[in-house]
Write a structure and sequence with these properties.
The protein is α/β, with parallel strands linked by helices. It has 14 helices and 16 strands.
Length: 474
C-alpha cells in the first residue's frame, strides 16, 4: 500500500501483520506504505528474521553482536541523542537577529521598548496567522516559550475555569479528580506537566492519522472528569504522524460529558518539513467553530526550533472568547511581552514566506541526519524483525520500537557505550511503557558524523538486546 502525504489509506487494504516487536506499522516490520508524514517500507533487509534462526544460528548471531558491542565500548564515544534541540549550525541561520531590530517603533508608530501590547505585535501576529491558517485576531504572541503558555492555560483553567466551565477545575480536582487523554507515544513534557498538577492521564494510541478517535470518544462521552486531550497534530513527537482533517473534525465535534473539554493543539512542528512535500496542518479552529464547539481547541506554536530556542516567540491561537479569557488572566501578571524581540523577528522574516524559506535552510541541515538514522538501522536490523522505526517527513524525532521487553536494556547498553539516549518509556505518562519497547531518537543536535556513529552503535545495542532475550526464551 503506497500513499502520498496527506492522502487517506485504503480502508480495504490488508492490515499490517503482527511482529515480534508488537506489530506497530513501522519500517522494518510491516508491508510498505506511506501515510500522512510517516513513511514505512517493506520488511526486507540484509538479514534473516531472528525468530527463524536455529538455536546454533541464534547463538552465533549473539556472539557476533557481543563482539561488535565490545568493540563499540572500546571506542570511548561520548554522543548524545537525548533531546530534540537545534544544532549550532541551525542556530547560526538566525544570527542576523543579533543585529535587529533597526528601529524602536512598530508599524503603528508605538515604541516597542515601552509597556503595553499584551497580545503581541500586530505584524508578527499576521505572520503566524498566515502560517497557522487562522485569523490575526485569534493570535497572541508572547514570550519565548509556548510550553509556558500551555502551563498558564492549565493553571487558569484550574483556578478560574474556562469561559464555558461550570466551576474552576480545581474543584473537580479536589473532589473527584481531573483526567486528560494522552495519545501515546507522545511528548514527555506534556505528561510531566499534568503529573505536576495531579491530573490523571488516560492513554490512547497515536495512529498515523492522529489519535485513535474511537478510543478517545469512549473515554470522553460519559465521564465529566475527562477535561482535555493533548494533540501534536503535525509531525507528532515522536512518531511523526500528521493528524488528518477527518480526525481533527471528529475530535472537535465529538460529544463530551465535560462542557468545557479542551484540546491542547500543540503545533510545535507545523513548519518543520524534511521533504519538499509539506504536510498541511488541519484547520482545527475553523472545524471547531463549524461543529458548534469554538472554544474546544487552543492552539500553540513557537519559533523555538525556527530561530533561537532560548530567545524565540511563543504563540497561542484560539476563539475570540478563549483569547479574551486568556488575555484577561495574563494581564494580572504581565503588562506586555518582549515587543523588541517581536519586532526583531518581524524584520528578520519579513513575511510568512520568509519563515517558510528559512525552514528550507533548516531542512538542508537536518534531513541528511534523518537519512543517516534510517540507513544505519536498515543496514544492521533490516529483515531481523526485532525493531521497527519511522521515516518521518517532518518534525524532530524518529520513533523506534524494539523487541518487547528490551527498550530499557537497549538504552542501558547504549549508555555504557557512551551513547546517551532518552530514557526508555519517556514517551509515555510517568515514563512507564507497558511493553518496554519504545525509544525516541533525536538526531538533530549532533553533527552528521556523530549521528552516523551513534546510530551504528544504537543498532548494535538493539540487535544484542534482542538476541539476549530470544536466547533466554523471551
Amino acid at each position: 500500500m503506497t500513499l502520498s502525504p496527506g492522502s487517506e489509506p485504503d480502508r480495504g487494504a490488508a492490515r499490517p501483520r503482527e511482529s515480534p516487536c508488537g506489530g506497530r506499522p513501522l519500517h522494518g516490520i510491516r508491508e510498505g506504505g506511506r501515510i500522512a508524514g510517516v513513511t514505512t517500507s517493506p520488511d526486507t533487509g540484509p538479514h534473516a528474521s531472528l525468530t527463524s534462526l536455529s538455536p546454533d544460528e541464534l547463538a552465533a548471531f549473539l556472539t557476533s553482536r557481543q563482539q561488535e558491542y565490545a568493540a563499540l565500548r572500546r571506542r570511548g564515544l561520548q554522543l548524545d541523542l537525548t533531546r530534540g534541540k537545534p544544532s549550532s549550525a541551525q542556530l547560526d541561520l538566525s544570527d542576523r537577529l543579533l543585529s535587529l531590530p533597526t528601529t524602536t517603533k512598530d508599524r503603528s508608530g508605538a515604541d516597542v521598548r515601552n509597556y503595553g501590547g499584551l497580545e503581541g505585535l500586530a505584524e508578527l501576529r499576521e505572520i503566524f496567522a498566515d502560517l497557522l491558517w487562522v485569523e490575526p485576531e485569534q493570535v497572541v504572541c508572547g514570550g519565548n516559550s509556548s510550553l509556558t503558555m500551555m502551563h498558564d492555560t492549565i493553571v487558569h483553567l484550574l483556578l478560574h475555569g474556562g469561559p464555558d466551565s461550570p466551576r474552576p477545575w480545581v474543584r473537580d480536582l479536589l473532589e473527584g479528580g481531573v483526567k486528560f487523554v494522552c495519545p501515546v507515544p507522545g511528548y514527555d513534557r506534556h505528561f510531566s506537566m499534568l503529573a505536576s498538577f495531579g491530573i490523571e492521564m488516560l492513554t490512547v494510541p497515536m495512529n498515523e492519522d492522529g489519535p485513535d478517535v474511537a478510543a478517545v470518544e469512549a473515554l470522553v462521552r460519559d465521564d465529566p472528569a475527562v477535561k482535555g486531550i493533548w494533540v501534536v497534530p503535525t509531525y507528532a513527537n515522536p512518531s511523526g504522524a500528521v493528524c488528518s482533517q477527518e480526525v481533527a473534525a471528529a475530535l472537535v465535534g465529538m460529544p463530551t460529558a465535560a462542557p468545557d473539554f479542551r484540546i491542547f493543539w500543540d503545533n510545535a512542528y507545523a513548519f518543520h518539513h524534511l521533504t519538499e512535500q509539506e504536510a498541511k496542518s488541519a484547520d482545527v479552529l475553523t472545524l471547531a467553530a463549524a461543529s458548534g464547539h469554538p472554544n474546544r481547541p487552543v492552539m500553540f506554536a513557537s519559533t523555538s526550533k525556527i530561530t533561537f530556542a532560548g530567545a524565540g516567540v511563543g504563540v497561542l491561537a484560539a476563539s475570540a472568547e478563549n483569547k479574551a479569557w486568556f488575555l484577561r488572566h495574563l494581564s494580572m501578571g504581565s503588562i506586555g511581552p518582549d515587543k523588541v524581540n517581536h519586532l526583531r523577528h518581524v524584520q528578520f522574516f519579513g513575511s510568512a514566506e520568509g519563515v517558510r524559506e528559512h525552514m528550507r535552510r533548516h531542512r538542508a541541515i537536518i534531513a541528511p541526519k534523518f537519512a543517516a538514522v534510517d540507513e544505519a538501522l536498515t543496514r544492521a536490523l533490516g529483515g531481523l524483525e526485532v525493531a521497527g522505526w519511522t521515516r518521518p517527513t517532518g518534525g524532530y524525532f524518529v520513533n523506534l520500537d524494539v523487541l518487547d521487553g528490551t527498550a530499557a536494556r537497549v538504552v542501558a547498553l547504549a549508555g555504557e557505550a557512551g551513547i546517551a539516549l532518552t530514557p526508555a518509556g519517556s514517551s509515555f505518562p510517568l515514563g512507564k511503557d507497558p511493553r518496554d519497547r519504545n525509544i525516541r531518537l533525536a538526531p538533530t543536535f549532533p553533527v552528521l558524523h556523530e549521528v552516523e556513529a551513534a546510530m551504528t552503535g544504537v543498532a548494535t545495542c538493539v540487535g544484542l538486546a534482542a538476541a539476549e532475550r530470544l536466547s533466554a526464551g523471551g
